[in-house]
């Protein structure tokens, strides 16, 4: 498989303190990579670095993050804005918090697409309803016309997936996309991520502390501990034959979801 996103010996610091150290891994086309570890291990920081969203206090101080032959830490903000959404999509942990409560879902979808290309509202609606249908959403018209507060938390999270995939980016970053959801909605989100790969060949980096979700989705797993790689390999290898005690402890939790 062709490499699409590569971290090479990456170090990330906040206010001069390293939170990610000497981290390397590669995401291939169509691959789902699960990054697991305890809270504070640096999982979400890795995703934010790929989007250029470390903020004023954060910086990639060593190494490279290569995407389509471009080193993301070296790109100016203008180029980063073009990559976000169009080339790399992101699902946040709480999509409801990132949605504007006083604007309809349809308005926010139209705004998101029009930030990258010229499009009419009718065209944007058609594109959104088509994706709703492909992901087996019921009553797409109602969702388009709804405000976030009129939808459940689980539905808002699923809308977040649609927003991230409107431009059909080749890479999707998912930051704890199921952590605030009940098991039934977790299963829907897992199936939708798998469906996106089936439809568009999307490569996914999934950050989670839930080994059960990883076991249901990931081809490859990276275990992160205190900002460093503890283990990295195929999902089968990591889940069935973990080498490190830290990984064994993570696996001791009863998974909520299992690979079919």
Automatic annotation (TrEMBL):
Keywords: ATP-binding, Cell membrane, Membrane, Nucleotide-binding, Transport. This is ABC transporter ATP-binding protein. InterPro entries: AAA+_ATPase (IPR003593), ABC_Ni/Peptide_Import (IPR050388), ABC_transporter-like_ATP-bd (IPR003439), P-loop_NTPase (IPR027417). It is found in: Cell membrane. It is a peripheral membrane protein. Transmembrane segments: none annotated. Gene3D superfamilies: P-loop containing nucleotide triphosphate hydrolases. Belongs to the ABC transporter superfamily. GO terms for molecular function: ATP binding.
């Amino acid at each position: 498989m062709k490499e699409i996103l590569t971290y090479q010996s990456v170090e990330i610091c906040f206010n001069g303190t390293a939170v990610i150290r000497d981290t390397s891994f590669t995401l291939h086309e169509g691959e789902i990579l699960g990054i697991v570890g305890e809270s504070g291990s640096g999982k979400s920081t890795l995703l934010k670095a790929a989007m250029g969203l470390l903020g004023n206090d954060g910086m990639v101080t060593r190494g490279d993050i290569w995407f389509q032959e471009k080193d993301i830490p070296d790109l100016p903000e203008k180029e980063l804005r073009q990559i976000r959404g169009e080339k790399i999509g992101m699902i946040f942990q709480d999509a409801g918090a990132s949605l504007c409560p006083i604007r309809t879902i349809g308005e926010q979808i139209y705004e998101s697409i029009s930030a990258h290309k010229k499009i009419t509202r009718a065209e944007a609606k058609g594109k959104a309803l088509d994706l709703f249908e492909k992901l087996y959403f019921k009553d797409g018209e109602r969702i388009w016309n709804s405000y976030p507060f009129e939808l459940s938390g689980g539905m808002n999270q699923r809308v977040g997936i649609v927003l991230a995939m409107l431009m059909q980016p080749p890479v999707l970053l998912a930051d704890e996309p199921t952590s605030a959801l009940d098991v039934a909605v977790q299963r829907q989100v897992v199936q939708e991520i798998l469906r996106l790969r089936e439809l568009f060949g999307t490569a996914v980096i999934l950050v989670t502390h839930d080994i059960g979700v990883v076991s249901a989705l990931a081809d490859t797993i990276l275990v992160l501990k205190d900002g460093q790689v503890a283990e990295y390999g195929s999902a089968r290898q990591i889940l069935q034959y973990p080498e490190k005690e830290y990984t064994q402890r993570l696996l001791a939790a009863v998974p909520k979801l299992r690979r079919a």
